[in-house]
Amino acid sequence: MDVIERYLEAVAAQLSTEDREDIVAELRDLILSRVEAKEQELGRALTDDEKEAILHEIGHPLVVAARYRKGPDSLIGPELFPYWLFGAKAGLIVVAAVQVLVLMLRVLGDPADFGQAIAQGFHGFFTGALTLLGALTLAGAIMEHYGLKPAWLTTWRVGDLPAYGLADPAKWGAAMSSSGKAKVARPSEVRNWAGRLEGREASEALWSLIAGTVFVLWWIDVLHVPGLSQFGLRGGEVAVTAAPIWSALFAPILAWAVAGTAVDALGLIQPQAARLRAFLKIPVSMGGMWIGWRLFEARHWFTLTQGDQIAHVEGGPANVSSEALRAINDAGRGLTDTAMTLSTVLSWVLVVMMLALVLDIAKQMWRMATIPD
Amino acid sequence: MDKELFETMRLELRRGSLVLAVLACLRTERYGYSLRQALAADGLEMEESTLYPLLRRLEGQGLLTSEWREEEKRKKRFYVLSPGGEAMLAALTEEWRGINASLDRML
Asked: In terms of residue numbers, what domain contains A132?
């Protein structure tokens, strides 16, 4: 097979079957015309090297075939590229933030494993980053190929623009704080306090989203935090096993965490939808309170095992008292006393969390009353 | 003056005029190679690798018609303006003359 036919075969392999024959015939005519013109000029037949030089001038087979491709010239065209770039930058920053948080948890759980935690952190970041970029590119390529134009490409408002500060971590707090419409509509004294409150809540929403994502990943066993299932005590290692209530509440807790994360994500995507976000936070907080109440009702939370000794970590109203707090001071370092201490501490933590949820419900109801439509 | 930058901008300037040049040349029936030679003779060099896909695109848009014919013992594809192509050429010519007049006033 001569040089020209080998070249045409390489081009043909990149073309669609319906156009292949036609395009190759045209290219053959083009190449042979060039060869004939050169042969006429030189007064002799061309060598294979001279023919190859002509083929080089025409172009690489992949490039030549690409010129005949129907549809978009690029995977992600110039109209879509700025959005892709923003998504990539903001997404990579979030992935990095999640990995930093996970790294901190790992190091706190097992400081001796610092080197491994760092290595896992890098691995997690690169895996997450590649997955993010792959997913973004696939989505962008599909939109480009089918000419899809979602509403956010064609319609936007100035009120949405601060959200794009997400691509710059230095502006995360301020990025989601403004909703120009809301600021204009409120009375000035409410606006000032609400404006400061919005700014703080916007930052909290972002970090809450990151923390919520990490929690969900840990809850479904994708992320592992060492040091939670056992700890050292006088007398040996203590194994920590979850009580049956955690299995019963696995799905509700997962749903609650995902719902909370989704509401935080809404704050990033649509910062001007403050009333909607406040409205959605109320059932999420109520869901958290229900989970807390179920935990209090169950009482038995964890089982501590040291050798043949067993002690239960049990929370409840009896542990939420000043006497229970004072008892911690007198507690020894044995298994039973440690269980008692943990029971009291965790009971108080749960009570504080439920009070915080009550306050959150009140706050969201106040926000709904003060934020205009 | 940066020669590379000038070359890039020169190509961009010329790129905008290629479709009009091709349509104008194809008022007379030609095949790919002879079309390229005609364009080059009038001062518009164009790579065949760019010209041929452009001809297919214009045909796909209904501005050209083509047929394969044997000439000098080889099959060649001859292109010529379609009625739609003639109307488009007239409209683009008017547009081009308007742009030229505006630029002449500015330069």
From this structure: 73-155
Residues A230-237, mean pLDDT to the nearest whole number: 73
Q: What is the DSSP letter of A312?
A: E
Q: Is the dihedral of CA B16, B21, B26, B32 positive or negative?
A: negative
Q: Residue A58: which of B49, B60, B76 has the nearest Cβ?
A: B49
Q: Is B96 at the interface with chain A, CB within 8 A?
A: no
Tokens 């009070």 -> residue? A355
- B48 contacts A30? CB cut-off 8 A: yes
Binding-face residues of A in 17-76 toward B, CB within 8 A: 23, 25-27, 29-30, 32-34, 58-59, 63-64, 67-68, 70
Pairing mode, strands B74-81 and A300-306: unpaired
Residue A180: pLDDT band (50, 70, 90) is very low
Q: Where are the beta strands (DSSP E) in chain B?
A: 30-31, 64-71, 74-81
CATH of the domain at B83: 1.10.10.10
Q: Can you tell me the mean pLDDT for B48-60?
A: 88
What burial class does residue A129 get, using C-beta atoms within 10 Å of its C-beta: 0-12 exposed, 13-18 middle, 19+ buried? Answer: middle
Residue B46 pLDDT exceeds 90: no
